[in-house]
Design a protein that fits this description.
Elements: E1 4-7, H1 8-15, H2 20-26, H3 31-40, H4 50-55, E2 72-75, H5 81-84, H6 103-114, E3 134-135, H7 138-157, E4 161-166, E5 171-177, E6 180-196, E7 206-221, E8 230-233, H8 244-321, H9 327-347, H10 349-372
Parallel strand pairs: 3-6
Antiparallel strand pairs: 1-2, 4-5, 5-6, 6-7, 7-8
């Protein structure tokens, strides 16, 4: 398979003249691969919303291309669809009637027939988990259901899992490709006409007449909350039913992007966890160091007290011995002296520290003797 060599300056000009999705499609690669090439060549890219603002007449300053040591980047393009799919891809023969539908399709269709609530455009969608991601009017409902039926059956024949996920507000169809999911939503395009209001009591200056166009579009995304990653729509000459190969290519492309996105998040999570462990270790070391310092200061204060007591005992003994003492008095003094010294010894951290070092040395010696024997 031939590799693609990107020239830095040429790719920079392309990026600021047309969207990345268009560039990726022209080179038969996915957007993630194109992003990798841009990052490797340090090429600044337009920010999100750039093309929309440009179409609406906004003037946006182009980010300059700074100097960089590398001028070329080689990339191997994606493999053919036949090599990507588990089974040989075959053209879908769509049903003409609504019998023998896939269970998920049948469940969704039953819901749409029974419910009469639509949006401003008169489009209907199911509410709740377990239904397809769909938003269509009654005029194209049969076609949309039959399209979903054929598509889902071929997706499952390829070995991918299809399910109806989402919530009451946002149902969507998920396709599990290996360990990652791609999210689908089939919609009928809507539009509106705006006219000056004739009512003086109206709060709005304009009246709006909403209607559906009859055109279907399939939104394909790696995000369950955002269906604008890729959109494949009916065209003047080509309906969705005749763009199945492009749909499958896009599903696999998005699945690859979802995989890379997941791996990046997992790698970032590992880094975050490692950083958390390091921070926790440093925090514990800091706490231990602070405790050692506090203990040392306490020991120093205790040592000072013990020295005062020793001096006090000596001074009492010196004064006491200048007197003639009875045996009873000497015994009483000795008892007091013993008690006072024991208390001074308890306060004396020097003795305690020496004893702890000696006990550790004895323990080490015993361990060595056990291993030697």
């Amino acid at each position: 398979m031939k590799s693609i060599t990107f020239n830095r300056e040429e790719l920079y000009k392309e990026l600021w003249s047309k969207p990345m999705t268009q560039i990726a499609e022209e080179h038969n690669i996915n957007v993630y691969q194109l992003t990798k090439a841009c990052d490797a060549l340090k090429i600044p890219r337009p920010e999100s919303g750039y093309w929309s603002k440009l179409r609406n007449g906004y003037k946006i300053k182009q980010k300059p291309l700074t100097e960089f040591k590398t001028n070329e980047y080689k990339l191997i393009p994606k493999v053919d669809l036949k090599e990507q799919l588990p089974k040989s891809f075959k053209t879908i023969t769509f049903k003409k009637n609504l019998t023998g539908l896939h269970p998920l399709v049948s469940k969704t269709y039953k819901y749409l027939k029974e419910k009469n609530y639509g949006d401003n455009y008169g489009r209907f969608k199911p509410f709740g988990k377990g239904y397809l991601g769909i938003l269509v009017s009654k005029d194209v409902m049969k076609r949309a259901i039959l399209f979903y039926d054929g598509l889902i059956k071929e997706i499952e024949r390829q070995g991918f899992q299809v399910s109806g996920d989402g919530s009451d507000k946002m149902p969507y169809t998920s396709v599990k490709v290996n360990d990652d999911k791609v999210y689908l939503r089939l919609e009928e395009e809507g539009s509106f006409n705006r006219t000056k209001t004739s009512s003086k009591s109206s709060w709005s200056e304009y009246d709006y007449d909403y209607y559906t166009t009859g055109k279907l579009r399939l939104q394909i995304s790696k995000y369950s909350w955002n269906h604008n990653d890729r959109t494949i729509s009916d065209t003047k000459n080509l309906k969705l039913e005749y763009q199945i190969e492009k749909i499958f290519k896009t599903i696999l492309l998005i699945a690859e992007e979802a995989k890379n996105w997941r791996l990046e998040r997992e790698e970032q999570a590992k880094k975050d966890e490692q950083e958390r462990i390091i921070r926790e270790r440093l925090r514990r070391e800091e706490q231990l160091e602070q405790k050692k310092r506090t203990d040392l200061e306490k020991a120093a204060n205790s040592f000072t007290k013990s020295q005062y007591i020793y001096q006090y005992i000596q001074e009492v003994e010196k004064q006491f011995l200048t007197n003639t003492l009875s045996l009873k008095q000497e015994k009483k003094f000795e008892e007091w002296k013993k008690w006072a010294l024991e208390h001074a010894d308890r306060l004396n951290p020097v003795k305690q520290k020496v004893e702890s070092f000696l006990s550790e040395s004895d323990a080490c010696s015993q361990n060595h003797s056990v291993h030697d024997s």
